Amino acid sequence: MTSLIRVEHLEKRFRVRRRGRGALGLIRGIVPRNQREVVAVRDISFSIQPGEMVAYVGPNGAGKSTTIKMLTGILVPSAGSVTVDGLVPWKQRSRLASRIGVVFGQRTQLWWDLPLVESLRLLRHVYKVPSEKFERRMHRLVDTLDLATFLHRPVRQLSLGQRMRGDLAAALIHGPSILYLDEPTIGLDIVAKDRIRRFLLEINREEGVTVLLTTHDMADVSHLCDRMMIIDHGRLIYDGGVEEITEMHGGERTMVLDLEEDAPTPSLPHARVERHEGRRLWLSFRRDEITAADLIAEVSGKLRVRDLTIQEPDVEQVVRRIYEEGLVEEGAR
Length: 333
Ligand SMILES: Nc1ncnc2c1ncn2[C@@H]1O[C@H](COP(=O)(O)OP(=O)(O)OP(=O)(O)O)[C@@H](O)[C@H]1O
Ligand SMILES: [Mg+2]
Fold this sequence. Notes:
Layout: E1 5-17, E2 27-28, E3 31-32, E4 35-48, E5 53-57, H1 64-72, E6 79-84, H2 93-97, E7 100-104, H3 116-126, H4 131-144, H5 160-172, E8 178-182, H6 190-207, E9 210-214, H7 218-224, E10 227-232, E11 235-241, H8 242-249, E12 252-259, E13 272-277, E14 280-286, H9 292-300, E15 305-311, H10 315-325
Parallel strand pairs: 5-9, 5-10, 7-8, 8-9
Antiparallel strand pairs: 1-4, 1-6, 2-3, 10-11, 12-14, 12-15, 13-14
Magnesium ion (MG) binds at residues 64-65, 182.
């Protein structure tokens, strides 16, 4: 199958002014002394097939937004290549515009003082959407994103969750086949996040829209994506299944025990005490080292257990560990 998005050895460097240095610093090498180079994205390659929903995660400053900006054509790469639907984004930006939709969760693309509906109508002209198609899409988006109650209100008066839905409608009004979402659920409450996730699943399933999404909320990843790419310090450190990495790095499960009485923290050969607070004890253990049943037997020999639950590893824990400790195990890429 041909890739819809193809990125090869992509790199982005920024020159930033050093503080406190004169503009006439000696030139050493290629970077002037009064400047410093930030490598935001280094040697990243990946490809995305039509209809995929891919999560792009990494800590603050990892290079996610910079990558998205190169994919949309807002930024020109320092090295490497990108093609999106056969086009080079920064060279063929206006041709590409009709095929992509973008939401930057941190910053609205709607006209602040205009009613939402007017922003959508303006976009219709920007993208030259035929009026019949526009009406049809408008109807569908108003319906599925539940925009009717605030469609005629100026964007500045909308709540964050309403505005984000408005931004999604704006990104999709022209019927693009690719949607880039840079933190589409940032700052939203659980109900609003859930509504946006359901909407994204729906447009992916029904319209086959390909989605690349950055997020710090691992629930977005587990609800929406089978595939995850992890970027750290500008490098792609993982590209693969969400389930696979959870299995590989999150082999640790947690047993939470409620004890009958106060007891000293036990030492157990096949489990690690994660926390011990009052009569509650958190043990982590690996599936390949001990079964839950054997661990229960071991603990029961030392402590009087009233109740227990077992928590399976989730993508949140896995990614937190990778951010903290790095991806060390072999075969991860
Ligand atoms: N226009 C710019 N000029 C200079 N440096 C920049 C510019 N844009 C980004 N950077 C730097 O590039 C690096 C990557 O930034 P980027 O915004 O891509 O990170 P991110 O992964 O999106 O982070 P976050 O999760 O905080 O949104 C950071 O060190 C950032 O300071
Ligand atoms: Mg960002």
